[in-house]
Each structure stands twice: as structure tokens, then as C-alpha cells.
């Protein structure tokens, strides 16, 4: 079965690997383990945005760029599609307001574009008949409408792999033929080689 996989990068990071030692992850090995043998993984589309360094973490961008280079060098089926970060000042309510001061101005940073890019690719690839089965790796309910249209107009098989250990989005589940979860044991057994064969790309030391 021709299978395309669509990964919401930040949803996956915060749901599955943040705070673990499993960030040096081989996505193809992971999804081969999670899916049934009849799934022929033709393409893995990874949607993310480039992070910026901070005073608290001056090597953040280097780790991310190294990981992306490792994925591209080791997994020929993988494509990376970038959104961006947008920062803007907002007024936020204080937890403990004082008389005359209920709000504080803060700088809010949001990752933009990845969910839209993911939905567009999901729909366009269905329209072009590139897959028999699309596997969505996310728990973001914003993707539900794209999934509904694919089921209604193209009758494709849709799978959901949720990175979060908690409850799966009901909106996404409503349009899926099957649901899988990312387990810690699978993450541990599906790490990239270090270094990546044929390259000098190595796992960042802090990972």
C-alpha cells in the first residue's frame, strides 16, 4: 500500500521527545515499526520551523540544523517543509493582579505556517493520487477539515499516529481508519546511527 507520512514537527517534539534522550530519532525506522508490513513508505514529509538561539540555550539552532541534516542524509524518502516564527507584543492578564495593574505586556512567539502547509500537502497529494494511505503524525485538531475532505472526495485510507500520551483528538479520530500511539520503547529502539554513515554528522553532545 502506497503510504505517505505527514509529521507535525513541533507537535511531535513536545508530545513525544521533549525531556527524553530520544531526540536523535530515525523517523523511517519508527514508522516502519509502528505501521503494518503492507505499508510501503514512499515519502515522509516533515513540517517544522527553524528555531533561534536564546541566552539560556545558545546552541538550540545548531542542534536542530544538525538533526535535520542527519535526517536528510539518512532517509532518502524524507522532505522538510518550513514554516516560520512570528513574535508580537500582547497584553496578558496577571495571575495575581494588584490594584490598578491587571495586565502585563509580553512578547508572544508563535510557530506559523506548518499546520497550513501540512493540510495543503495532504490534500494536494490526495488530488494527485500519490498515496493510497496518508498517515498524519499530530494531535492538532486544525487538520480535521483537510482529513474530512480527503475521506469524502478521494476515499483514501487515513491513519493517525498521535505523539501525545494523553487523549487523542476526537476531531482527528473521527476521520481515521486507524490510530496508533508513539511508545517510549519504539523511540528508544529507533535512534539514528551516530555518526550518520558516509558523513561527519554526529549527534549533538547535549542530546
Summarize the structure.
The protein is α/β, with parallel strands linked by helices and 207 residues long. Helix content is 32%, strand content 30%.
Largest sheet: 6 strands, parallel
* Helix residue percentage: 25-40%
What do we call the CATH homologous superfamily?
5'-nuclease
What is the number of domains?
1
> In one word, what is the shape?
globular
- In total, the number of strands is 8
Contiguous runs where pLDDT drops below 50 for at least 5 residues: none
Derived structural class: alpha/beta
Number of H/I helices = 7
Q: What CATH architecture do you see?
A: 3-Layer(aba) Sandwich
Mean of residue pLDDT?
91
Name the helix and strand elements from N-terminus to C-terminus, one letter apiece.
Answer: EHHEHEEEHEHEHEH
Q: Tell me the radius of gyration.
A: 19 Å
Q: Strands across the major sheet, in which order?
A: 3-2-1-6-7-8
Distance between the termini: 35 Å
Keywords, please?
207 residues, 8 strands, globular, alpha/beta, Rossmann fold
Describe the protein's architecture and organization:
This protein is α/β, with parallel strands linked by helices. The protein has seven helices and eight strands, in the order βααβαβββαβαβαβα. The strands form two sheets. It has a six-stranded parallel β-sheet, with helices on both faces. Strands 4-5 form a two-stranded antiparallel ribbon. The mean pLDDT is 91.
